[in-house]
Design a protein that fits this description.
The complex is a heterodimer of chains A (about 675) and B (about 375). The relative contact order of chain A is 0.11. In chain A, the strands form 3 sheets. Chain A has a 10-stranded mixed beta sheet, sandwiched between helices. Chain A folds into 2 domains: about 260 residues, no CATH class; about 325 residues, Zn peptidases (Aminopeptidase, 3-Layer(aba) Sandwich). With about 675 residues, chain A is α+β, with helices and mostly antiparallel strands. In chain A, helix 17 packs antiparallel against helix 18. Helices cover about 50% and strands about 15% of the residues of chain A. Chain A contains 23 helices and 16 strands. Chain B is α/β, with parallel strands linked by helices. Classes of the chains: A alpha+beta (about 675), B alpha/beta (about 375). The interface between A and B is medium-sized, with 19 and 16 residues. Chain A: It is found in: Endoplasmic reticulum membrane. Chain A: This is GPI-anchor transamidase component GPAA1.
Chain lengths: ~675, ~375
């Protein structure tokens, strides 16, 4: 130590950090938050640009003229659907459509097991206890005429099964129309795979897993009989009608992954070329782009993006491609009443342009940003711009750590009423040699004095509390599974049991401080300082790591948890602290951010009680989908919350409720002298 | 070697002319005054496109267009070294397979008949380019891939690609710096490989490539100043790429008006692309060039024009004046008289030398640490025995 750094200057720094701790913390937090919010303001972010030269966006003239095919096919598909009602996907008919164009067409069957006991089948006591979904994907490969099939691009569309919704027949129509147009051309340097997916994400996951030879124990699928090369990019298409007013571009993928910004730019630019409005999260870009209303709008778009990203759940089929490092976006054609609309012709031209640009690619997307936030479709905030404010917010935690670390080993300047005065008296009396007053413990024959422990905190006291918290976290992470198993025995509906498991563990663990205080651990003021330090260090690590993987989740956690957790200390204003802590608990945060999301998406307000009910419902479904997606698609947000954030929060919760003991310490000197 | 034979042949010609000049009288000398005005007897062109990839289609089109122009003006394929770093005609992305166009009207397929690409694809490297210029090619290289110039050769060097300040990128892997290029030209000069060079380059910051030149009789033309980008001219929407660069576009427009007998001079060439149309500012460097660009014909570089004047009388020729005009020791003419020891090139792969070295050197070789360890071991053993 001290070879390369001057310990004195470091000391000075920590002294300053300790002296002006609270103002510095407030300053860092406020500056961090304001800075971050200001990034949505136009002068503080940048205009998007193309980093990849090879794309050559929009240089080529569109030649798409087969929009009548799209109309015909989508109508035919609708007719089939009307006849079959809620039947399975018309696989044979779809295969015929692709074969009719002369494409290599294949099907893939799969069975997905969802590890949730099925309510229906449990009565039969049958072999299959879990919910099972089976479906058939259909895909067709347009082979590039003048190259080997070493690379491919994918145009996918989900076949939706939901009742009283259209099932994406327009997207299929457009897909067939594009296929019939594309196959006439000789300039493809990559194969084009047209993929119609059964059951949204699960079907897509089945296809991608099989394509990349990855296996999942819960998903069984038939092998792919036709293949192409490595997939470079994918466009997923969802059309709600044959006339759309705008494209909603969906970016957020699995676990908060985002597609390369170049692909997003490409789609946005080509839509602009065909004069189709592009929206992000149904939010229109503002005009004029500067000023207060524009800032509000941009901030709203950015917040919605962050809220979506933080969930880690893909908001379209494109999200699953991202796991395989395949850049993908979903184009959702939305019909908004009262706006001018666009038909298949221009939608087809946009997609043709996108595919011709992707065809020009020479290597994988690698140039532009993978970590960014979009306040508008043509403005971006890159990782280099949003990390400093996040760092400032984490600086609060760092300052608090240094503050508490400096004070470990010093007496409490602010002793509690009653207890400490007595202690100090005893110390004085010990110094005068009159220490054997009323504190002699006759049981063990050793003189003990109640004293404040001035030594460094007891590091070993961390072990039980941290491990207790971690065990609680572990139980929380497996509780949905355990509870659905148990619920199955008692005949509870699986989803209810699942929710009960997830939330029940949370509420049960609120009583943990009670159990911890009962133990025989001596908890002096320095031990508590040490606990606080350790909790803050853990928090900083968890938040920084989370932000590196999923920035939005890290930021949303940091912005709420950091100030509250930095403030809590045992003793004073315990009730207020408890309320604040509950607000920033994982469940509390979920409620808060769900409420924010509903507020931003302008869900209709029907009074307090119905809104609260609605909020509860949405929270319920969020937890549910978080857990289910964790099992089916491998999102880790629920696991992260249960295994890292929740134990850490519980640690703070314990600190709030920790009673400071005045320990009984053996007085060895006394024994020797006597 | 082929370069030797080329030079010998040229020397022979020269001696013949001298011989003729001694024998003949000088009645029509005025008429013949302009006959050897340029001082060159043959024309060569080195046309280089250094960039790969589909989105650099325009660089291939640039080079092929210049190729087509110089060929039209009379330089034969045997005297053109054409280096193309990529094959756009066969690129799967090309909607018009087997063609390269230099205009959206698609009137001229510049990759049509009789295109002889000497170096293609990954053969286009800095090393190969320098070797071609300096004549240091492996003996197995065919004549068509050699620059068989002599001290009476006017060489047109046209390069295009992506450049920066002081360098030009070759493929995606390497680059040639302006110092390397200047040294290559100096070597050419020392090896009597040119008479005059017209160096023309169409890249971003192009003029930086000729800033370091120091060899005589070189003209440099660049499409953009330092700090400027050289821009493309227009897009062909049916092919979907930028199809030609601005400077080359206007250069070709100018060259279309040139015929083998045209009297257009280099000064006209310097004006082909004013900033108004070029957007970038083309630059010219003439300080190394001894002749007045206003009197130098375009066809001295862009064509291969043989002056044929039929006279009924025998003409007495003097020694070429322009050859003497070069200064001092660097003049090729002054060195020609000296008889020099015949030089041979070092083997590119010194296999034999290495083999000999291996044979002559002792086969047994102990590393130092082995000797040290052995001696320590011996001492230990000896001392152990003594104890």
């Amino acid at each position: 130590m001290g070879l390369l750094s001057d310990p004195k200057s470091r000391e000075r720094f920590s002294r300053i950090a300790a002296k002006y701790n609270s103002p510095l913390c407030v300053l860092a937090y406020v500056v961090g938050v304001v800075w971050f919010l200001a990034l949505a303001y136009k002068p503080f972010n940048h205009r998007t640009y193309f980093s990849e030269n090879a794309l050559l966006p929009g240089l080529v003239e569109g030649k798409f003229r087969t929009e009548n095919v799209a109309t015909r096919i989508s109508q035919a598909m609708k007719d089939i659907k009307d006849v079959s009602k809620d039947g399975p996907m018309p696989v044979a008919w779809i295969v015929n459509q692709f074969r009719g164009l002369g494409l290599d067409t294949y099907t893939q069957e799969y069975i997905q097991t969802i590890p949730v006991p099925s309510a229906r089948q449990s009565e039969e006591q049958g072999k299959e206890m879990f919910v099972q979904l089976n479906g058939t994907n259909v895909y067709a490969i347009l082979r590039a005429p003048r190259t080997a099939s070493t690379e491919a691009i994918v145009l996918s569309a989900p076949y939706k099964h939901y009742l009283n919704m259209d099932h994406n027949n327009h997207a299929f129509g457009l897909m067939i129309a594009l296929a019939s147009h594309f196959r006439k051309s000789s300039y493809w340097s990559k194969d084009i795979i047209f993929l119609l997916v059964d059951y949204d994400e699960i079907g897509m996951e089945a296809w991608l897993q099989e394509y990349h030879y990855t296996k999942s124990p819960l998903l069984k699928s038939s092998p792919l009989h036709g293949r192409s090369g490595s997939i470079q990019a994918a466009i997923n298409l969802e059309l709600h009608s044959d006339q759309v007013s705008h494209f909603n571009v969906k970016l957020e993928g699995l676990n908060g992954l985002l597609p390369n910004l170049d692909l997003v730019n490409l789609v946005v630019q080509l839509c602009g070329r065909e004069r189709i409005t592009v929206k992000l999260h149904q939010q229109r870009d503002t005009f004029p782009s500067e000023g207060w209303p524009a800032f509000q709008q941009n901030l709203k778009t950015m917040s919605l993006m962050m809220l979506h990203q933080a969930t880690g759940m893909p908001n379209g089929l494109h999200g699953l491609f991202l796991r395989y490092h395949i850049e993908a976006v979903t184009l959702e054609g939305v019909l908004e009443p009262g706006r001018s609309t666009t038909g298949f012709y221009r939608m087809g031209r946009v997609l043709e342009g996108v595919f011709r640009s992707l065809n020009n690619l020479l290597e994988r997307f690698h140039q532009s940003f993978f970590f960014y936030l979009l306040p508008a479709s043509d403005r971006y905030v890159s990782i280099g711009m949003y990390m400093p404010p996040f760092g400032l917010i984490l600086l609060v935690t760092a300052l608090k750590i240094s503050f508490w670390a400096v004070y470990i080993g010093t007496p409490d300047p602010d002793p509690w009423d009653g207890e400490e005065n007595v202690v100090i008296e005893h110390i004085h009396s010990k110094k005068t040699g009159d220490g054997q007053g009323d504190n002699t413990d006759s049981k063990r024959g050793v003189t003990k004095i109640r004293t404040q422990n001035y030594s460094d905190g007891d590091v070993w006291s961390l072990v039980p509390v941290v491990s207790c918290c971690q065990v609680a976290g572990f139980i929380a992470s497996i509780s949905p599974m355990v509870m659905t198993g148990l619920g199955h025995l008692f005949g509870t509906r699986p989803y209810q049991a699942l929710i009960t498991g997830a939330t029940g563990m949370f509420f049960a663990s609120l009583f943990m401080p009670k159990c911890i205080t009962r133990n025989r651990l001596a908890c002096t003021v320095n031990t508590l300082r040490l606990w606080k330090c350790a909790a803050l260090v853990l928090q900083a690590i968890i938040l920084a790591a989370t932000a590196a993987a999923n920035f939005s989740l890290g930021m949303l956690l940091a912005v709420t948890m950091v100030p509250v957790c930095a403030m809590v200390r045992p003793g004073k204003l315990r009730f207020l602290q408890a309320v604040l802590m509950l607000l920033v608990s994982p469940l509390g945060l979920l409620v808060i951010y769900t409420g924010l999301y509903l507020l931003l998406t302008e869900t209709e307000y029907h009074g307090v009680v119905p809104s609260a009910m609605h909020l509860c419902t949405v929270v319920y479904y969020n937890i549910l989908s978080g857990v289910i997606h964790g099992y089916v698609l491998g999102t880790w947000q629920y696991t992260l919350l249960a295994l890292a954030v929740f134990p850490n929060w519980l640690f703070f919760w314990c600190i709030v409720f920790k009673k400071r003991d005045v320990p009984v310490v053996e007085n060895k000197e006394e024994k020797k002298t006597s | 070697m082929a370069a030797h034979s080329g030079r010998n042949w040229a020397g022979l010609m020269f001696l013949c002319l001298l011989f003729v000049s001694v024998a003949a009288s000088s009645n029509v000398e005025d008429q013949v005054g302009g006959f050897f005005k340029s001082g060159h007897t043959n024309n060569w062109a080195v046309l280089v496109c250094t960039s790969r990839f589909w989105f650099n289609y325009r660089h291939i089109a640039n080079t092929l267009s210049v190729y087509r122009s110089v060929k039209r003006l009379g330089i034969p394929d045997s005297q053109i070294i054409l280096m193309l770093a990529d094959d756009m005609a066969c690129n799967p992305r090309n909607p018009r397979p087997a063609t390269v166009f230099n205009n959206a009207n698609q009137h001229i397929n510049v990759y049509g008949d009789n295109v002889e690409v000497d170096y293609r694809g990954y053969e286009v490297t800095v090393e190969n380019f320098i070797r071609v210029l300096t004549g240091r090619l492996p003996p197995s290289t065919p004549r068509s891939k050699r620059l068989l110039t002599d001290d009476r050769s006017n060489v047109l060097v046209y390069m295009t690609g992506h450049g920066g300040e002081g360098f030009l990128k070759f493929q995606d892997a390497e680059e040639i710096s302006n110092v390397e290029l200047a040294d290559a030209f100096q070597q050419m000069w020392q090896k009597n490989r040119y008479h005059e060079i017209l160096f023309m380059i169409d890249t971003c910051q192009a003029v930086s490539m000729y800033h370091k030149f120091y060899s005589p009789n070189v003209i440099g033309i660049g499409s953009a100043q330092v700090g400027e980008d050289s821009l493309s001219h227009h897009v062909d929407p049916s092919i979907g790429v930028y199809i030609i660069d601005r400077y080359t576009y206007y250069l070709l427009e100018f060259l279309e008006t040139v015929t083998p007998d045209s009297k257009k001079t280099l000064a006209d060439l310097f004006r082909v692309c004013p900033k108004r149309v070029c957007v970038s500012t083309p630059g010219v460097r003439t300080d190394l060039f001894t002749r007045d660009p206003n009197t130098v014909l375009i066809t001295d570089f862009f064509g291969s024009v043989r002056n044929v004047e039929i006279t009924t009388e025998t003409i007495t020729l003097k020694r070429n004046v322009t050859a003497q005009s070069c200064s001092g020791s660097s003049c090729p003419g002054s060195r020609r008289g000296k008889r020099r020891k015949k030089l041979a090139y070092a083997n590119q792969f010194p296999v034999e030398a290495a083999y000999e070295e291996e044979v002559t050197k002792p086969q047994w070789h102990f590393p130092m640490y082995f000797v040290a360890a052995l001696s320590v071991f011996c001492i230990t053993v000896v001392s152990a025995f003594r104890i």
